[in-house]
Specification:
5 helices; five-stranded parallel beta sheet; single chain; Rossmann fold
Length: 136
Amino acid sequence: MATEDRSVTRVVCVEDESDMIELVKLILSKQGIEVFGAEGGQAGLEMIRNRRPDLVLLDLMMPDMDGWEVYQTMKADPSLANIPVIIVTAKAQSIDKVLGLHIAKVDDYITKPFGPAELIASIERVLEKSRTPHTH
């Protein structure tokens, strides 16, 4: 494939469970979204740097490098800082994590288990926001 089709929305899903990556691929491919799965934070960062996605779905709880570290590394890198991030958290995670998300200005977050409609709605909302020029 010599020329890349940049009209296709690309999402990197950083998640330590391969089942979740497969589920996200299944849901989003029906929407015509290309999904690249990365197992774990280190692999995720590498994939984000290589693929330059339109959006990142980022699980918070990962053994090697958690979602926070990935997020902070992205925000500290000028070439990655503008890529929107949707954080995926488990229902049981404490409220201070979620409050932290607001303070950290993540674009959105969804809790597991989530349904296809919820995932798609979140992605559409965030992409819409990222494509609209910011007016201050």
